[in-house]
Amino acid sequence: MKMSSFMYFARFGLKTLFTKSEKPILGTVIVTDKCNLHCKHCSVNNITAVIRPYEKVKEEMKTLYDMGIRILFFCGGETFLWNDSGKNLRDLVIEAKQMGFMIVNVVTNGTFKIDLPEADLILLSLDGDRERHNIIRGDTYDTIMENISHATADNICFYMAINKFNKEAVADVCQLAKNTKNVRAVSFNFHTPYPDTRELKLSVDEKREICEVIKDQMKKGAPVFNLKSAFPYLIENKFPTPCKQCVVIENGKISTCGRCIDIPGLCDECGYFFVAEYTLLFSGNLKVIFEMLRTYLKYV
Ligand SMILES: C[S@@+](CC[C@H](N)C(=O)[O-])C[C@H]1O[C@@H](n2cnc3c(N)ncnc32)[C@H](O)[C@@H]1O
Ligand code: SF4
Ligand code: SF4
Q: Could you report the per-residue pLDDT of 106-119, keeping only the tens digit for each?
């Protein structure tokens, strides 16, 4: 991260803490909900299957920028399916950087060729070892590994949603993150139980055991891009929700925190680590503040 960006985020953090401001800093543009996969745990793919027009995506980026957002995520559906008016996802990333976003990340299922050196991080979903990943995501593991090996930059971070299917595979993914070329880190979420995937929800005891595995992997040098100081809050869902500093824009509609905000009761069962990490940070949790500084400087 550039020093100027670091200073900007530090000022934003202090201002949020001391003035209790609810201004957002992190925004996500959903470029399409179309997807080539139908993962077992996912409730947000192919609802409209519309690719958002380039001009609309650009407008949405501008809207987020004008709101003060400086950390931008492109998400889907499958982001690499996005193209319009002769532009592709890489053009969007370059444009976002030119617009002034300081960190630009992309979330992908990794089944397409990865040529996105301008992104700060490519969050690439990997949901376990080959067997467990393929149970959840269809027969895609080998294609993904092949795409990673030919990626044009080392900006990949595995992104694993831990659920009943793959809870035993956390250590495998940590080790793979440590030992795979072009992969910088791994970041986790617990399954967030949307009404149609409630059966995949983890119990408090399961989450506690998984956090012990992740901590052990951190000790062994696995590059985990999460904050262990947030684990106790994640295990018991004792962190504040929603994240007021995060917004999502999908089809022109802006939601605070996530598009899941409209699902009654879901925030009380939220499994997204970034929500816990950001809300604890902005509520002044000192351990989280120090660990976040160290972690972000290391991986972004
Ligand atoms: C919705 S996908 C969109 C981007 C891309 N298609 C992908 O799979 O990475 C973004 C991330 O959300 C995760 N995800 C989907 N449903 C989830 C849920 N109910 N709880 C936690 N994570 C979930 C996916 O595993 C993926 O890592
Ligand atoms: S690849 Fe991503 S968007 Fe597509 S079904 Fe899987 S999790 Fe959902
Ligand atoms: S806190 Fe609520 S809105 Fe935010 S990601 Fe979690 S479930 Fe979605």
A: 999 999 999 999 99
Q: What are phi and psi of 257, to 5 degrees?
A: 70, -75
Number of domains composing the chain: 1
What is the residue range of 273's domain? 24-299
pTM confidence score: 0.97
Residue 42 CA to ligand 1 centre (angstroms): 6
In CATH, what number is assigned to the domain containing residue 34?
A: 3.20.20.70
Residue 10 covered by a domain = no
The token duo for 132 is 């467990």
Note whether residue 34 is domain-resident: yes
12 located within any domain:
no
Query: What ligand 1 atom has the least distance to the C-alpha of 127?
Result: 25
- The length of the chain is 300
Q: Please give the angle made by the CA atoms of 122, 90 and 184, to the nearest 5 degrees.
A: 20
* 26, 263, 267, 269: residue to mutate for ligand 3 pocket, most atoms within 8 A of CB: 267
- pLDDT tens digit string along 13-70? 999 988 999 999 999 999 999 999 999 999 999 999 999 999 999 999 999 999 999 9
